[in-house]
User: Fold this.
Amino acid sequence: MTARGNGSSDRKQPEQKQRGPVVLRREYRNESSTTDQRLLDSRGPSDWVHTDPWRVLRIQAEFVEGFGMLAELPRAVTVFGSARTSRDHPEYAQGQELGAALAEAGFAVITGGGPGVMEAANKGCSEAGGLSVGLGIELPFEQGLNDWVDVGINFRYFFARKTMFVKYSQAFVCLPGGFGTLDELFEALTLVQTKKVTKFPVVLLGSEYWSGLYDWIAGTVHENGKVGDKDLSLLHVTDDVDDAVKIVQEAWRAWEEAH
Assistant:
């Protein structure tokens, strides 16, 4: 009787070695040591800490630390803006006013934890008695968390940090900023557009700075059919801090009613 369903019944199975869930066959099974041996042997080069498998563990650790620290965070708003804004600039004063207004409205304030507008928002929130949060990032030039952060964590990886901004915020408010602010702005818009997050307003505070960008989106991107009418409504441009907070509050109430 001929065996069916297994065309290789007479074929000799290759020699193999099991390394946890990994199967090594043929010449790839020849290893000079075991996983336990490599773990317990302190000698040898340290290059392994820079390999991708080890990076996966560091990435995992960043998510665990972030989720653990922020899990009990009250409702919060992330404020973005330039780290280059000086303390005597009107945008710094506006950031501080915004941080205070959000705290008084019952929101924690999350920033990137750096200087400039981020420091201003953290300061305004902290002085108003709110919870001031900073999510820093490792950069080639040292920056560190500003002095007005009550709860802070530094990340190695941008994508882990970005997840925390979105997961634990009910809204983004963007003051004038550079590439980092634009990056976060368009990522938020993409997530809302694709319904990865819902009831998530994005407010652009400072019409003189943001109107050129908005006009280009409305007049070029929209006119060429690259975004729809509903997509334009995702952006709110204002000069008024109270108006920005009102938009955030209305979105929060709408979210609560939906849940």
In short: The first strand starts at residue 16 and ends at 19. The radius of gyration is 25 Å. The first helix runs from residue 35 to 40.
